[in-house]
Specification:
alpha/beta, OB fold (Dihydrolipoamide Acetyltransferase, E2P), Rossmann fold, Ribonucleotide Reductase Protein R1, domain 1, five-stranded mixed beta barrel, 8 helices, 25% helix, 27% strand, globular, GTP binding, ribosome biogenesis, G_CP_dom
Amino acid sequence: MFEGVLIRAYGGFYYVQKGAEIWQCTLRGKFRLAKGAAALVGDRVRVTPVRGNTGRIDEVLPRKTELFRPPVANIDQAVIVFAVQDPEPNLALLDRFLVLAEHAGVAPVVCLNKADLLSGRRDHEWLRLYRKIGYPTVITSTQNNEGIDDLRQLLAGKTSVLAGPSGVGKSSLLNAVQPGLQLKTGEISYKLRRGKHTTRHVELLPLTNGGFVADTPGFSSLDLPDMEREELGYCFPEFAACAAECKFKGCLHCHEPHCAVKTAVAQGLINQTRYQHYLMFLEEVLQQERRY
């Protein structure tokens, strides 16, 4: 039995990297019968060789992190890619993914792609907002190679996932970061005004400067993870500075009196749109609780 990394899974087979070798594996029966995802791309697994370079996954080692959208394990950071335009950035969707990353303990990076489409200024007001909150940001363009070295440096030596809506240029960015990958790319559907899916499954790609990166299918909607109502506020880092001053323990920063977070919003210290997204997400979390 040997240990390796599950780098892709499709067609009923699981492909495990062991050094420079790729092994085609099946899952042990007990995993196939288990509820939920028995094995995720990014998992460290133990494999029993069968014949040639085929084997059977007999053990999935404990995960340090897990995302369910995209489904990937043991990720150090999530590079959340949105475009300047084509498609237009959906900040509610961005905040959803930031909540997923924060809740999973995965470090987020906000990437503004297609910077060649910027007119006049070098970033957007919304990008400055996330930078002020404390999120690392990078501005990129595959048309003029802007920010590609910065992104390459961010990915070096880490296991990362590139995530974001279809059409924002995730696969093109990876092709620019590591020429030779030749990942399939697509254009925007001008009828639907959103990207066309080019990546069909999650795959962990080794990088020549160390580490792995997962190219993932795009999404246009995103459910929140299962969480307690009190947990949501901790997924908004800008709340931390004042939440301790709320009068009531376990304050949800919604209807409670003497809430320091609401006061900070009124004073312009916390962005109003981010706070409105928090309230929208809180209602979803409360609805989840009522369903269960």
